[in-house]
Inverse folding.
């Protein structure tokens, strides 16, 4: 029964509407307050790595197979979940600065992005949607956690970067 | 002759520690390699694609599985034909030749091979992957002596080529990368004097009286264990299409071995057939190794693997083409391109939908098949269960098969994944420990087994993402009473303990 298959299972791309419908997006006013995690992990993976990695106790899960839920008020946007999530499904979005947006994403490709560098912004389906500037890079166990400044309207689109040198 | 070196010197995740440079002879010509490489990897690194020519049609053949489970990399090494070069380490001065057809097998044993030794061990474990390692650790730390038998020249099985971080929970190695888990387990095992590891050793058969035969390089061993745990893993399934035997058509795992274990680019432009987790993960790893991925093909209307793995490759623009399959590959001595086609609801190719893809590497990632040869030989009662990849031995939830004291764990018990393989390895070991130990120590082992069993069946496998494997494993699991009944009706050839 093809009709019952969520479209992301056919494309490998989840839409913003779908994320919202699944309750995986923070409310607009929370996004305006400061950095907050978005876990694009809609399936019931037997995994609770993000729960144990979150220093604020902001991720809820009763059983190991539950979909992780972020308590938007507890989350401080530190990015630890971005660094550790095995599915590379955790991101942090920050809309608190007027006219600017910051997306923090995991990066495991060469070359390694440098702070201040301009990079190509990619959407969930790999389209090049613009250019952004790297503002912060840190590393945990070889996963780079990269924060890029992106045009505000792309905050919910950009989920990867290309570094071209 | 070889175009250039295919070795990878910079990788976002891995650091390749190469041993000292050595030289050996390939077809009479001196070539260079690094100590620690397999013969197959070393040859592939310098651009050798053709390892042999087939017996009847003289078609070129190159490596396929790279883990010693197929026959694609057979070569003549120091005069010995049919040597699996993917699990044969390079040695200074060795002679390696392409095999043409079926050369005669020499009828003199290699030097030292006549020696025989009876190995003392409470428990023999076949397979040094996640399940076998987990079992060995669980037994060794309880003071039980184990012999771990591994065909490869190192431990870790398929973990060593996994660059991605594992799901699960912290106490199940979750968050660590596969190769890191292998390192951790192997180094822990090395600290136990009561755990003996036999590398490059094949458990070639079980014998009446409860003996296990093991052939290592220089010696034949016989072991009479009180229990035998078989965690022999799986092999890659094959797909029929014209040209599927050309060098450059490889199992997904074979490419992982080359690029992640040895740091060798398996190709420049890849086409991946199958979008299960293995196909998706290998695509992401190809990207990390600097290989372009042209597309991932999936014959079903939806992606086979988990969404997060698919999202990782889609983000970098790799297309996943559902309702597509491969029609043919072409090339003279290596893949030079492939034709793909769309399929209809009944998986028949749609005429006119064919397209050519420019690629030099085609990876088959359509599934795995449990390696159950020792069970077949022991006449364990088996059942064909498609959900777990083929015939598997029936067993109780404590993982004992119809052969008394012969246990199964990991992919050889039915294809699932590495974390469940670790859990199963521990359960099998704890079941054995509860029999071999006495008093409160036996009771504690039993308790721990029950705890793990509850976690595995009631929590971990409750995920809808594992429902197919779970169904398969349910079909393979019988009660203790049913096991006894099966033993009466189909008496096994051997028993242990
Ligand atoms: S960003 Fe930090 S605080 Fe927020 S959920 Fe992730 S780990 Fe927790
Ligand atoms: S760590 Fe990542 S994959 Fe695991 S539950 Fe959390 S978001 Fe999902």
């Amino acid at each position: 029964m093809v009709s019952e298959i969520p479209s992301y299972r056919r494309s490998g791309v989840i839409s913003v509407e779908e994320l919202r419908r699944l309750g995986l997006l923070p409310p607009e006013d929370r996004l305006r307050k400061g950095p907050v995690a978005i876990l694009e992990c809609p399936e019931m993976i037997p995994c609770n790595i993000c729960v144990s990695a979150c220093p604020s106790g902001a991720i809820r899960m009763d059983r190991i197979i539950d979909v992780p839920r972020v308590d938007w008020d507890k989350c401080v946007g530190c990015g630890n979940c971005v660094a550790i999530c095995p599915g590379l499904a955790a991101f942090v979005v920050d809309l608190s600065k007027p006219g600017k947006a910051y997306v923090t994403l995991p990066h495991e490709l060469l070359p390694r992005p440098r702070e201040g560098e301009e990079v190509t912004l990619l959407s969930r389906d790999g389209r090049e949607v613009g250019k952004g500037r790297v503002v912060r890079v840190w590393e945990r166990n070889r996963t780079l956690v990269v924060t890029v400044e992106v045009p505000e309207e792309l905050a919910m689109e950009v989920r990867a970067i290309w570094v071209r040198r | 002759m070889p175009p250039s070196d295919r070795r990878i010197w910079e990788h976002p995740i891995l650091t390749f520690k190469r041993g000292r440079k050595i030289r050996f002879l390939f077809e009479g010509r001196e070539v260079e390699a690094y100590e620690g490489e397999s013969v197959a990897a070393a040859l592939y690194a310098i651009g050798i694609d053709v390892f042999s020519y087939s017996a009847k049609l003289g078609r070129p053949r190159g490596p396929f599985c790279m883990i010693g489970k197929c026959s694609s990399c057979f070569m003549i090494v120091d005069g010995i034909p049919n040597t699996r070069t993917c699990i044969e380490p390079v040695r200074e001065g060795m002679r390696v030749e392409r095999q043409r057809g079926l050369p005669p097998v020499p009828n003199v044993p290699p030097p030292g091979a006549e020696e025989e030794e009876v190995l003392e061990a409470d428990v023999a474990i076949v397979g040094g992957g996640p399940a076998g390692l987990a079992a060995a650790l669980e037994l060794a730390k309880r003071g039980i002596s184990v012999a771990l038998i591994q065909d490869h020249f190192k431990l870790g099985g398929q973990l060593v080529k996994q660059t991605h971080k594992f799901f699960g929970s912290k106490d199940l190695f979750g968050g660590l990368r596969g190769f890191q888990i292998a390192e951790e387990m192997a180094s822990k095992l090395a600290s136990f004097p009561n755990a003996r590891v036999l590398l490059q050793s094949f458990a070639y058969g079980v014998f009446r009286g409860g003996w296990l035969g093991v052939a290592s390089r220089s010696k034949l061993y016989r072991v009479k264990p009180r229990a035998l745990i078989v965690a022999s893993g799986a092999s890659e399934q094959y797909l029929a299409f014209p040209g599927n035997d050309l060098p450059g058509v490889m199992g997904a795992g074979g490419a992982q071995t080359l690029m992640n274990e040895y740091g060798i680019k398996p190709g420049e432009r890849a086409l991946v057939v199958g979008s299960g987790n293995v196909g998706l993960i290998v695509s992401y790893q190809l990207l990390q190794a600097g290989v372009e991925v042209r597309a991932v093909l999936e014959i079903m209307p939806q992606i086979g693997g988990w969404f997060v793995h698919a999202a990782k490759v889609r983000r970098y623009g790799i297309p996943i083409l559902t309702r597509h399959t491969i029609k043919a590959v072409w090339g003279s001595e290596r893949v030079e391109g492939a034709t793909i086609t769309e399929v209809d609801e009944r998986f028949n190719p749609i005429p006119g939908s064919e397209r050519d893809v420019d690629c030099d590497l085609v990876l088959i990632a359509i599934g795995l098949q449990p390696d159950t040869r020792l069970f077949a030989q022991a006449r364990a009662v088996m059942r064909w269960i498609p959900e777990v990849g083929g015939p598997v031995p029936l067993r109780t939830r404590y993982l004992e098969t119809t052969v008394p004291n012969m246990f199964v764990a990991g992919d050889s018990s039915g294809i699932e994944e590495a974390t469940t393989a670790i859990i199963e390895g521990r359960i099998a070991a704890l079941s054995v420990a509860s029999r071999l130990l006495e008093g409160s120590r036996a009771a504690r082992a039993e308790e721990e087994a029950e705890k793990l069993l509850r976690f595995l069946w009631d929590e971990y496998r409750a995920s809808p993402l594992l429902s197919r494997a779970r169904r398969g494993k349910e079909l393979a699991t019988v009660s203790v009473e049913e096991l006894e009944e099966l033993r009466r009706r189909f008496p096994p050839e051997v028993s242990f303990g």
Q: What stands out?
A: The longest strand of chain A covers residues 128-140. The mean pLDDT of chain A is 96. Chain A touches chain B through 46 residues (CB under 8 Å). Chain A has five helices and nine strands.
